[in-house]
## 1
Amino acid sequence: MAVCIAVIAKENYPLFIRSVPVQNELKFHYTVHTSLDVVEEKISAVGKAMADQRELYLGLLYPTEDYKVYGYVTNSKVKFVIVVDSSNTSLRDNEIRSMFRKLHNSFTDVMCNPFYNPGDTIQSKAFDSIVSAMMVQAS
Amino acid sequence: MESLTLTDGEQKYYSDLFVYCDTDNTKKVASNGRVLDLFRAAQLPSEVVLQITELCGATRLGHFGRSQFYIALKLIAVAQSGLPLRVESLNSVKDLPLPRFVVAKNEQEARHTAMYPDSENQGSYQGVIPRPPGRGQVKKLSAHEVIQPCVPTVEPQPDTTSPVVSPHQSPPTSPHWRKHKRQASGGNIERQPVVVAGAVWTPFREAQAGPVVSGDGMWSANSPPPVQESWVSLKDAHPPSSSTLPAIHCSPVQENSSIRTVASATTTNETQRHSSGGYDDPWKITDEQRQYYINQFKTIQPDLNGFIPGSAAKEFFTKSKLPILELSHIWELSDFDKDGALTLDEFCAAFHLVVARKNSYDLPEKLPESLMPKLIDLDDSAEVPDQAPDVGYSGSPVEVTPNKSPSMPSLNQTWPDLNQGNEQWETFSERSSSSQTLTQFDSNIAPADPDTAIVHPVPIRMTPSKIHMQEMELKRTGSDHTHPTSPLMANPPDLSEETKLATSMKFVTVNSGDGYSSSDSYTSDQDPITSVVTRQRSHSGTSPEGLKVVAAPPPPPPRPHASHSRSSSLDMNRSFAAVPTGPQLAGVVAYPPAVPPRPLPTQTSGPHSGHRSDEGLAAHSSTSPQQIPEQPNFADFSQFQAFAASDQPSDDGEKHPESLPVEKSSEGAGPLRTVKSDNQEERAAATVNSAKGSIMAPPPKPVRRRLKSEDELQEEALPLKSNVIATVLAAQPSIPRSVGKDKKAIQASIRRNKETNTVLARLNSELQQQLKDLLEERISLEVQLEQLRPFSHL
């Protein structure tokens, strides 16, 4: 169960960002922003065949005392960032991967929509519902 | 003019109508245009209308005052009830029904065109909207409604009547009428269409001054009052007052519509029609709407089975001037398969949603049932209108051809014969149910035979042979349903008791015989029969084995078809079936149908070994002793036979061992033996084939074998042929023994011989094939050698 989910465009501006504890949103936004540096670092680390070698799932970007940040990059340099609560019974890697997979699928569905201009903020209800399902149930 | 006395209902109705016609809001004079439209909507001959107007004094006055209007209405009622028009009749006629005004669907059409109110494109749009010829007129305006006096009685919603054709004059009153009607009927779903129509109209009207004339007249009956009211609400200029005064709201819209031409009227009719008509069942699409959508689809994509790319769809729907966000949401809802393109069904759904949205209907969160693209589309697009309303897109042929729809339809098509829901599929009765039937079909096939389900699942393979087999299976299970179970039922308790093969064999034979005899009718259905028998056998033969068989129902169950589909097995089946009860014979009978579960090799290895020992012990005099140790199955088999029929066991056993030794020689796999043993236990002659098949093929092959035709078996059997032949020959001596016993024994032995013959024939053919293959290989090798040789010489 994620605490914050963000979709960042290729140019590193957010297309979609949603946090569960609505009050601390700014903190999560900041976290996501700083995680982008780590993402960039991981992307550039591969070097050679861009998409071939590089795996989409980046894994744990960096942990803090409160939460962990996971990253995922698509082949079009769209980044998904998931922030999960550390206190949460540590989600297995597979679960995080499946979450990213679902995100990616719904993101492609959004992309398929001709009415969606790439670069716009994502306002799809279907996407919202998928994300909400993944978020920590609002206490 | 005489004074007019009106009943309360009449008074109310007339006042509403007057307000409706009071486009100028003078509250004194009804606009001529609207009044005339209203009169036209009354479906009276024009001369009658003229007479009425004259009588009421409007011609004298030049306009319709309230009193004149009321009188006119009363006269209309009189005329509609068939009474002569007399001034005196105004008050004399008692209990006169309220005048009725029919509203055509023009309104819908107008509304729809209004949806895409590109003012400059209006004409083009209208051109784009293929007005179904005569649509605005008499076409299936099923939604045409008869406006009844809006008495508080429940309105029957006589929706579909022939639309009143008022080509050159928008029946401005029609919406009004509709409202009245609606009011009486209360908020029913149909209101929505009216709302839709209204909504469409409003924008349309705003786009261009009052072109939606005839559209009004053509309001479909499907635009119930709610439409009007919401339609009214759309008109910001006229805040919705009481629903009883919709006319006020309607009037402005209708004014604009007055200018409508016939052509545009038809367009609006269509628009209104399908815009309003779609909500009868809240998201149902009426035939007219569907036809309209299809026509629209054609303008973008001539091929009805093709897709509309996202970009084209985007442009098209952008014309509706809905916010992009909503269009995006509509797209998400309607693009069922998320491929970025719209099939006909998806397009219709999207269009429908756009229409709904235009009429201020909230978009659903999920795609409504009736809008879901139906998986199976049999109807041609031309036949779309004929589709059942609740089916929505069922008729779209697009769904059939492309694979956008789920596999269900393809399944349905694949199994037209077998699919029970086939009828439904064809008739499009219920789309959802058809898909359900599809699933049911599959599920039916699987559990069709409870026995099979218990023992091993009925294989549902998509090969032609399988199809046939399944059909047979179905038939068999249908009729033979009880039989297998009964014997099986009987067997289990016995099985537990039966540890020895012999006893179990007896049981099996008996049971199988019973079961088999019961399945006599299915002799042709070897596979099912064998499977049934197999099951029986597995239960009866060896509890562990049987259990194992049950436990391991590998998807490609060791269909005995390999063994039974052949004529030989047929013969065997026949012969077995013919054999009367007699334990011995039963045993024989039991064998052929038994289809040893293929995948059992590993499982049965354990018990088989146990059996083997037993089998080995079993006297199999006819068979060579070497065979026995080699082929536990063989031993089992013979033992089986020994128990079943002292006379004939050898034949079967031999046959089996024939294959077994051969196979063993080829494979030498223990598990194979177990398989064989299973086979043996389970069937007599059939086992030979199956054993061959199962044993001969290496582990992966056995499964494949089942699927393969017998030819494959033949190939594998080649190496076994020699042994088989030997065993067969060896079995010969046993035959005379049986002959001497009994007529039945003789017959059985004859059958056995026949079976043996067939087996041998098969073996022969298989060997021949193997020979051919080998020859080919040899030739190829020789060629290679030749190629290499010159070099070597160099």
## 2
Amino acid sequence: QHNMLDSSDAIARSGSNPFQHLEKSAVLQEARIFNETPINPRRCLHILTKIIYLLNQGEHFGTTEATEAFFAMTRLFQSNDVSCHLLIKSVLTVSLLNSFMVFYSLTKDMTGKEDVYRGPAIRALCRITDTTMLQAIERYMKQAIVDKVPSVSSSALVSSLHMVKMSYDVVKRWVNEAQEAASSDNIMVQYHALGLLYHLRKNDRLAVTKMLNKFTKSGLKSPFAYCMLIRIASKLLDETEGGHDSPLFDFIESCLRNKNEMVVYEAASAIVHMPNCTARELAPAVSVLQLFCSSPKAALRYAAVRTLNKVAMKHPSAVTACNLDLENLITDSNRSIATLAITTLLKTGSESSVDRLMKQISSFVSEISDEFKVVVVQAISALCQKYPRKHSVMMNFLSNMLRDDGGFEYKRAIVDCIISIIEENPESKETGLAHLCEFIEDCEHTVLATKILHLLGKEGPRTPQPSKYIRFIFNRVVLESEAVRAAAVSALAKFGAQNDDLLPSVLVLMQRCMMDSDDEVRDRATFYMNVLQQKQKALNAAYIFNGLSVSIPGLEKSLHQYTLEPSEKPFDMKSVPLATTPITEPKTEIAPVATSKLPEKLARSRQDIYQEQLAAIPEFQSLGPLFKSSEPVQLTEAETEYVVRCVKHTFARHMVFQFDCTNTLNDQLLQKVVVQMEPSEAYEVIHYIPAPSLPYSQPGSCYSLVRLPDDDPTAVSCTFSCTMKYLVRDCDPNTGEPDDDGYDDEYVLEDLEVTVADHIQKILKPNFGAAWDEVGDEFEKEETFALASVRTLDEAVGNIISFLGMQPCERSDKVPENKNSHVLFLAGVFRGGHDVLVRARLALADGVTMQVTVRSSEETVVDVILASVG
Amino acid sequence: MEPSLYTVKAVLILDNDGDRLYAKYYDDTYPTVKEQKAFEKNIFNKTHRTDSEIALLEGLTVVYKSNIDLFFYVIGSSHENELMLMAVLNCLFDSLSQMLRKNVERRALLENMEGLFLAVDEIVDGGVILESDPQQVVHRVALRGDDVPLTEQTVTQVLQSAKEQIKWSLLR
């Protein structure tokens, strides 16, 4: 049939692909000519090409087929170097024979006379070699690395690099040869040698530093090697937190003047990506990128504008100088470049240019890939924060984008952006919700639909016309998957709980949901139905608006524990550790990157990890659940002999201080390390758990257990003076071998403060008003304070939040501009499990006057808070 | 980003229907043939109408070049130095251009597939840029412009390439 056509015939039929109709079985059949003697090289070559072509097309060869073909090829090889040795070996099993024969032949090739031939032989050999075989060819490899023929040396170096994963210990022995190769004149050999050297030494910071010193001084010929050096240098700078006065930074900066564009760009990009770069340090990098913007090479323009886009996120003013060049790129035929230019301009440009740029971008938004659409959305999002007045233009644009086709990441970016606009600008709420309602009518992404339903439940009941959202929500109950239906039920319940006039209709709808086919939906409906029928504000607040505030993994563990040890007592929710509210970090967006491929895992919170670590220490097992863990506090200056930081763990009646210590002296081994603590108040240190040994640069932890004063619950703050005590054993810096004898020594650390914030865990109350009513005014207290030293409301809000360590609710941590009064809502749970809510009314006059109202289910808690504020 | 020599994630050559003529993937970004072909289809759809040299697709940087009825692609991480990827693409194209005596089109390429296989092996090895100078590549592939008689050597070179690939298919 067609597959039997000889290739020349096929090519004669113009335009057709001679390999197009190849069939595996036919090719394997043809491969039998490998066995013929004498061999016909031209035909063999052609058949081999066919085999590779098939493999390349993704054709899969079964084990038997592959072994047969492989065997035939080996025969072919054999005819190349006829050798009676191999014939003797043919009695061995096929697989063993194969690898042996190939191994033998390739070894011959790699040491042969023909240079062009040796490089590929080394690479092929290393591909099929294992650790034991590698040792057999070690001598050849060492020779090959320093071979004067560049292709041989490069092949040996690159193959060695591939084998580091498998045989680190063997390859490590070739470091001297690699070192020699690094001084080669050939640019590729230099690059490969540098790469291998770094890979072998990367865990030894000292060796990397030495290597950098050597190469940055001696200078290199290869632009590739320069790029590699820049990467190594910037990584080292990052790790050592080296200042920008370091010689490494100077080296990177000097590369901005290299004559090769690849190196210049690498250096500019490295500087831009350094954390904490000042605008002045960025300036030289920005100006080379500016030059690249007008390069005739698209890749260079792309690279430059993409990097400038990153600069603009943190330092928009640094990029303003390039505005003219960026304007020219708006019409670039490469849409990626145009998009990046526009989004950069959106970040750096003035408010007046926004409309023009938005118009420009909407003209080709449909032509660009999803990745760049996300970039556009991110730029819009940033813009809305900068120019809140433009939100209606943006909202229109976004709603149009929402209607277009696009993948999940893109849609999610738009939805997130709309949500953040709604949150920032109350007047845009209704339009935004309307767009989102329209979107969920036809939304294939469950995650987005549930997210929007949640938002509707939260915001909808507080709009002037809540009833209009009910229809959109109930449509979901009728049409969607289980997860969406369940979310819709929860949203409905919130309308019923907040709006009395809607309650009867919500109850009717709820009743229908109780007949749902899915368990979760039915359970939710039944639960809400029963809560709503009670018509009690406190119940609504606790079970509908604000939900559970415990950590889910913690709850699972506690319930499991409870079932293991059955008791008469009912399960106590207060014994479950609280969920730590995630700190909403300022978005560090890294323009378009491959984030979409990461599987979304349920990340365990930091506190769950601490809980587990502490529970593993016998002395801490009776302390109950971990209530709160603080951020680490540094107890030493940077760059000292020992680095110590402390994490404060609060339990119901105790505190555990975890000291993470690092010994930065390579000639000392510390043992039996404890941090002795002297409290200023009636706190009692009851136990020290030492870190058994602290070798150079390996962090270790020791702990102190402190009992909180029982008799005085208001004693929440205390200062500890801390001293680290340990046994020193001097040791050889090179081998780490310690002396037999040691001596005791101590090291004074900075004082450690325990404050009221260590006793309060943040908790987010999505509906603060409901929570405020739920706690009630039984123990309400109010006091007025004057904060004389504070100049702005923002500053006052920041101070109060960090002092009390409570969670700001209802976005009240954002002070609107040009206001001279503000109300801050804070929520938290006090040690022991009592909810505490704070309402602080702030007024700006000469200083800031603050009226604090505190509510809690426990009177002492209220007192503690007011006492500590005063 | 961890400094590393591993730079190239894939080298692709497609024809003007978007069908694969050559594809080599150097890491597990697209582990199965099905995912690879889907990626190639996406790449082709996004690039074949515009000759704009560089794009960002599925979170990867793609540099490309087309000539008559061939599309050449070099793919790397979005954090990779775009100019390095460009160097690979240019080297591949220029090498082939010399080997095919400036006749860089589908038919000529298909007649010289073995040369292509060898050339790519000389330019990128396991994701590491092995050579960036087309002269060197052409020299090593030993298929110079003038018609060199087919030597035993070429056979063995192709053989090695085939063996390596068979070996992988065995291990799969």
## 3
Amino acid sequence: MPAVSKGDGMRGLAVFISDIRNCKSKEAEIKRINKELANIRSKFKGDKALDGYSKKKYVCKLLFIFLLGHDIDFGHMEAVNLLSSNKYTEKQIGYLFISVLVNSNSELIRLINNAIKNDLSSRNPTFMCLALHCIANVGSREMAEAFASEIPRILVAGDTMDSVKQSAALCLLRLYKTSPDLVLMGEWTSRVVHLLNDQHMGVVTAAISLITCLSQKNPDEFKTCVSLAVSRLSRIVSSASTDLQDYTYYFVPAPWLSCKLLRLLQCYPPPEDGAVKGRLVECLETILNKAQEPPKSKKVQHSNAKNAILFEAISLIIHYDSEPNLLVRACNQLGQFLQHRETNLRYLALESMCTLASSEFSHEAVKTHIETVINALKTERDVSVRQRAADLLYAMCDRSNAKQIVAEMLSYLETADYSIREEMVLKVAILAEKYAVDYSWYVDTILNLIRIAGDYVSEEVWYRVIQIVINRDDVQGYAAKTVFEALQAPACHENMVKVGGYILGEFGNLIAGDPRSSPLVQFNLLHSKFHLCSVPTRALLLSAYIKFINLFPETKPTIQEVLRCDSQIRNSDVELQQRAVEYLKLSSIASTDVLATVLEEMPPFPERESSILAKLKKKKGPGAVSVTELEDNKREGGELNGSSDRGPDIAAMAASNASTPSPSADLLGIRSAAPVGAAPTSAGSLLVDVFSEAGPAAPSLAVNDDGFLRDLEQPTEASDALLVEGSGDSDSAPPSEDPAAPLSEADELLNKFVCKNNGVLFENQLLQIGIKSEYRQNLGRMYLFYGNKTSVQFASFSTTVTCPGELQSQLNVQTKPVEPIVEGGAQIQQVLNIECLTDFSDAPLLNIKFRYGGALQNLTLKLPVTINKFFQPTEMLSHDFFQRWKQLSQPQQEAQKIFKANHSMDTEVLKAKLLGLGMALLDNVDPNPENYVCAGVIQTKGQQVGCLLRLEPNAQAQMYRLTLRCSKDSVSRRLCELLAQQF
Amino acid sequence: MTMQFMLLFSRQGKLRLQKWYVPLSDKEKKKITRELVQTVLARKPKMCSFLEWRDLKIVYKRYASLYFCCAIEDQDNELITLEIIHRYVELLDKYFGSVCELDIIFNFEKAYFILDEFLLGGEAQETSKKNVLKAIEQADLLQENLDFQMRLFSGVMVPNMASESSGLFQN
């Protein structure tokens, strides 16, 4: 093996590096670097041409300086020059510099691409590899444009060296990830798939990564890879530990390739071909058997490699979720690992068991390990392992063990690490609610939660307990008693005061019979906490007080006195002052009846998904998120962690809504339409949705002022009938030659056609426009019928279709001009050919101009071409549906809306609409038969976008929740917008 | 199975090698590096080699004075990544002959070249030790400019911290 000197030693570089290392201070280092930079700059600018060696040395020094963390703004040109050197080491350093430092400098990219092109065509495998490595390292769009069509050819050519094939495969993978639209496998597909059969293990190892990525995006085109992968895997699994020579790693044959093969299979459902499936099951069994064999080596590398394959096999078994026998065996194997002495294995076993817990076949088997897992939560020394144990407890929880698990989690919370407390709190809150048999247990649990970890109890948690108490009258008395007792503690958390204030304000009367908790005792207890609390909590307490005046007239003088004192009525905080003033006035002038109406008990909250669950989902960020999104998530994460500070703001918002009647303050949050911007501006930034993910909903605190508000509300939706007439009217149309702006109702007209293809698009006194359309794949044809309703001829009749803005590049609409004359009572027809190039949001505009009795008519409509028209329905089974649903789990792939029903919620009507949408309506998929799920693929010229839809009606609340998951996030959003108008 | 990036840093927190397989701005890279170095260095020796960090999984292992730290995606296999690290250390060891941190400091470009032969675009390209080293050797044989060849460590006075010159495999 080469000694260190075998490299291309550069003495100057070594000297420079030691100089830097000799520097005693950061300043000295910077000084030395600046000196070097000046030197290199002068060398590069000097008259004397530098030889290749010097250039290489200086470029290498610049690289070193950059890697130390300093900016480098020159030397790129010299590095590019090195690329065309015929000395390998110079070329190599040039490429390294480019790989590390290049940005999309257009001038340079052209030169670099030129050099790469030369090397690719050099037929020198070493040079070709260097060039491919550079493309793979930089992976820019410009490079994809230049080389995406060339590399597949290199990859499959018969005379390409193996090492070049390996680089080409991974290079192509990188380009595919950067610019999938530029990498078109088409004719190469089958030859690429067959690389799985290649003689050279290295080629297979590299190619399979490419095939896996392509299969994820185009499963159908690549599905032949399944049987090839199974037979390759089978050969490896059954080979002796020495058969594969250098591809055997610590007595494990080809561990990397095995893992990649098992990973590739996870892109597909279980093989349909019985023989292939049998062979695969055999492989999986062999892998499970091997785990029981004595190790062939004591080295950790041996066991790691072996277990890496085992865990990947278990992932595949879980992915199939169809072989009960294998699932239970997997679970038993993981059970053994739970007590393994290697921390790594314990960690992974906990992690993997989490997914097993969600399979119906292995849920019970997982549950048998509960004691071990609880023990891990208590005794593991590494917080990451404890976190996994907590996750697993959460996943294995059901009605049978909920009390035990919740109790263990609560007791763990007392000593839990700060880093995981908030998540633990959310989990306890969710489990307590989900598996509550008696709600007094639930109330106890949540109050314990606040007591133990008050700082980590986010507003969702304490709002939720209030929501539940309000909605369940069997627990209200118990809740009042329990909070009253909890408030007795000399120091209790502010969140406890909030819950206490709210609940006593609503239900204090239920415990007022007991002299130990008489109205005045209750009031004094609450008020004793008042001065220690933040402004938002005080605001909440003031509202509780006014509720007290209604519940217990005997407290009125005491409370009025409190409200009247300077510290309230002249409080420097405007919110507190306003409340004090208004409540004082209200209690003085309103009759008992009015007071009772205004301050009536809160009506039940509409049932909906727990906002806590939503929060946990958000926090855990399902699935992988690429690094580029990390920044956003980080911010989000920070916000979540800081949410204990945010809680009061919410209350402030709620408070401000409660005392500042505003037409849009939709207290119950039922109408998702209530716009955030319409809230009082001072509170706008505080307006955070606390009860659901949909429209803003502020809790109305103790004051039931929605009674006031309902009357103040403006009707937000005018009826449809009003809209059809209007500005299209001949008299009011502006006589202009420019296309008129789209009708104000154009959007409503558009919405009418989302779920249907034929009908009357527009009608006024003069003109009726009918529409008929049909769509296939990414193409559509639309027939427009213009009918003259008058007896007078339309002259200079002309229509134009335009695609505004970016729609131009997304949709291609072609048509021929129409006859310029439309006789009275006659109808003319126009055909539009439509091609969908990529997904889009806007609608094309149709402008119509004609003269009627000398007056120019000019109107513009939106053509009902919406993205869903290009759907191909996809039938799939429940299993496949949920598998795909899981695959589309990145947060931005999902769009969700909760909204009020605008139309009939009748099943047949809904079904007809969903079918009209163009997706396949899937039966027997959703466990809840009330729900609807649909699947479809949007066909555009450039790509196919898979879409899954779930619509959950709640007939009682007259609401829907609509969820869309699409492989493209813009599509999810657009479809969600469109559909929310339909139901 | 894509690796997002690989970082090598010393116990003192000095970055020795960085390889990014996803496009990120320099600013983001620096931020991630700072944060991760801090997180990993704060962990105790017997803790597990994996941690959740942001939405990624971090797999790390210490060899003598150097930490090798990889970021992989949620679905990826931790154990096989741990062995990716080990195989890379083996490759360095074989090439430099009992590799130590100093070899990587002074021959950083070689460390990059070896990594490129082994992993490309974040995926294992060639897992055979022989084949990777053969590729690097061939490259070394191609060089003509032998005038300046020297043993780096005999020609230059190198101030070492003892830890930097201890073989990665000796601990």
